[in-house]
UniProtKB/TrEMBL annotation:
Coiled coil: none annotated. Residues 10-87 form the EfeO-type cupredoxin-like domain. It comes from the Bacteria. This is Cupredoxin domain-containing protein. It holds the Pfam family Cupredoxin_1.
Amino acid sequence: MEYKAKISGMEVEAYRWDPGTIVVQKGESIRLHLHGLHGKVHRFSSPGLNIKGMVKKGEITTVTFQPNRNGTFELICHDHLTPETHGPMIGYITVINP
Protein backbone atom coordinates (compact mmCIF):
# COMPACT_ATOMS: atom_id res chain seq x y z
CA MET A 1 0.00 0.00 0.00
CA GLU A 2 1.09 3.54 -0.64
CA TYR A 3 0.07 6.47 1.51
CA LYS A 4 0.56 10.14 0.70
CA ALA A 5 0.32 13.15 3.00
CA LYS A 6 1.47 16.76 3.10
CA ILE A 7 3.75 17.89 5.89
CA SER A 8 4.77 21.56 5.92
CA GLY A 9 3.62 21.82 2.31
CA MET A 10 5.75 18.87 1.14
CA GLU A 11 4.16 15.69 -0.15
CA VAL A 12 5.38 12.64 1.74
CA GLU A 13 4.88 9.04 0.58
CA ALA A 14 5.05 5.88 2.67
CA TYR A 15 4.79 2.26 1.59
CA ARG A 16 3.65 -0.71 3.68
CA TRP A 17 2.53 -4.32 3.39
CA ASP A 18 -1.19 -4.84 3.91
CA PRO A 19 -2.08 -6.68 6.00
CA GLY A 20 0.94 -5.82 8.11
CA THR A 21 0.96 -9.20 9.86
CA ILE A 22 -0.14 -12.64 8.72
CA VAL A 23 -0.33 -15.74 10.91
CA VAL A 24 0.52 -19.21 9.55
CA GLN A 25 0.90 -22.64 11.10
CA LYS A 26 4.21 -24.36 11.64
CA GLY A 27 4.74 -27.30 9.26
CA GLU A 28 2.03 -26.23 6.79
CA SER A 29 2.87 -25.62 3.13
CA ILE A 30 2.18 -21.91 2.63
CA ARG A 31 1.49 -20.14 -0.67
CA LEU A 32 1.78 -16.40 -0.20
CA HIS A 33 0.38 -14.24 -3.03
CA LEU A 34 1.77 -10.69 -3.13
CA HIS A 35 -0.10 -8.18 -5.30
CA GLY A 36 1.87 -5.23 -6.68
CA LEU A 37 -0.47 -2.26 -6.27
CA HIS A 38 1.86 0.76 -6.11
CA GLY A 39 5.47 1.61 -6.85
CA LYS A 40 7.46 0.10 -9.68
CA VAL A 41 9.11 -2.87 -8.02
CA HIS A 42 9.45 -4.27 -4.52
CA ARG A 43 12.35 -6.67 -3.91
CA PHE A 44 11.60 -8.50 -0.67
CA SER A 45 12.91 -11.16 1.66
CA SER A 46 12.24 -12.86 4.96
CA PRO A 47 15.65 -14.24 5.94
CA GLY A 48 14.27 -16.21 8.90
CA LEU A 49 11.93 -18.11 6.57
CA ASN A 50 14.20 -18.40 3.50
CA ILE A 51 11.83 -16.30 1.38
CA LYS A 52 12.91 -13.86 -1.29
CA GLY A 53 11.45 -12.46 -4.46
CA MET A 54 10.21 -9.43 -6.31
CA VAL A 55 6.75 -8.05 -7.00
CA LYS A 56 6.03 -5.47 -9.70
CA LYS A 57 3.15 -3.04 -10.01
CA GLY A 58 0.17 -4.74 -11.66
CA GLU A 59 1.53 -8.25 -11.09
CA ILE A 60 1.09 -11.04 -8.56
CA THR A 61 4.09 -12.88 -7.16
CA THR A 62 3.59 -16.20 -5.36
CA VAL A 63 6.13 -17.60 -2.91
CA THR A 64 5.83 -21.04 -1.34
CA PHE A 65 7.42 -21.98 1.95
CA GLN A 66 7.02 -24.38 4.87
CA PRO A 67 7.92 -22.80 8.22
CA ASN A 68 9.66 -25.20 10.59
CA ARG A 69 9.88 -23.02 13.71
CA ASN A 70 7.63 -20.73 15.69
CA GLY A 71 8.23 -17.02 15.89
CA THR A 72 7.60 -13.69 14.22
CA PHE A 73 9.67 -13.01 11.11
CA GLU A 74 10.10 -9.78 9.17
CA LEU A 75 9.04 -9.46 5.53
CA ILE A 76 11.35 -6.70 4.32
CA CYS A 77 11.04 -4.63 1.14
CA HIS A 78 14.61 -3.78 0.15
CA ASP A 79 13.51 -0.88 -2.07
CA HIS A 80 11.84 0.98 0.83
CA LEU A 81 14.08 0.57 3.87
CA THR A 82 14.37 4.16 5.09
CA PRO A 83 12.26 7.33 5.28
CA GLU A 84 14.29 8.66 2.33
CA THR A 85 12.97 5.76 0.23
CA HIS A 86 9.41 6.08 1.62
CA GLY A 87 9.84 3.29 4.15
CA PRO A 88 10.50 1.32 6.13
CA MET A 89 8.23 -1.19 4.38
CA ILE A 90 8.28 -4.13 6.77
CA GLY A 91 5.56 -6.68 7.43
CA TYR A 92 5.49 -9.66 9.75
CA ILE A 93 4.83 -13.38 9.35
CA THR A 94 3.98 -15.05 12.66
CA VAL A 95 4.34 -18.82 12.82
CA ILE A 96 2.33 -20.70 15.46
CA ASN A 97 1.77 -24.34 16.42
CA PRO A 98 -1.10 -26.05 14.59
